[in-house]
Amino acid sequence: MRVRKKIGALPDGSGVDLISLGERGGVELTVLTYGCIIASLTVPDAGGAAANVVLGFDRLEPYLDSSPYLGAVVGRYANRIGNSRFTIDRREHRVSANEPPHHLHGGFRGFDKRVWDAELAANGHAVVFRRISADGEEGYPGAVHAEVTYTVADRDVQIEYEAITDAPTHVNLTQHSYFNLRTQGDVLGHCLAINASTYLPIDETLIPEGEPAPVANTPFDFQEPTAIGLRIHADHEQLKRAGGYDHNFNINRVDSALRFAARVLEPSSGRTLEVHSTEPGLQFYSGQVVGHRGFCLEPQHYPDSPNHEAFPSTLLRPGERYLSKTVLAFRIG
Length: 333
Fold this sequence. Notes:
By secondary structure, this protein is mainly beta.
């Protein structure tokens, strides 16, 4: 049964609603109109016992005060933009430097810190969020009309993004849930496979540097299922820079537009998560900021793409439509 209720308000008085979508295939989703946050995602284990597999809070206030993007949609540009600037058509634009000197996840008040309009589907299994990001918001050019749709299907959660703009700008959206398929403790024993033969090395400030590097014979090789914690403390400069994993993996191309990106198995519960996406990259974050109690798999374009001509472009122009889709598929074993 779908439920929608007000759970609080922002300091400016804007009300925030909690929406529970109807259960399908044992999967149930609870979201907030603030930041399109996935507050809980209930999934059964091998024995049929259902439990929440994402980190979140049971009240609004912690999301407002100290949340590290828990469960939110981040944008207008997910990940980092180096030195908080980029050039479009020979004109430089400066965006907010909320991680000095760089720009992270849309700035001080990105998409994750805004209240969205929400429309529930008649069947109770989907919700469409909409908002207009004004010209100049966090320094970005152009007014962007953005739409995010969550759909609970049979054991799947589908996330679809759309956007249009009235001036050239950069758009790169993703979902920033922290997963723990065991539901408690750390995630270092989760076995992860990523469909990527290369990744992007980063500098000391976590901005991509140089060319994509092969994962083979490095701690970044997840081409075969490997425990997240197996090599996380290896003597490797890239791991030291990020304090663990916080890197973009370049997803191998496949025939379908919806690519298999990653698979995670938690042995004790039997829960498995598969991530499929239309995006060319996957940011794997091992959850340092939450004591490795959750990990993030964020399908997106590459970090700092506006400043790297060789990276897949994130530029959106008037008359074009930004489209992206991610499927979170939950299975047993």
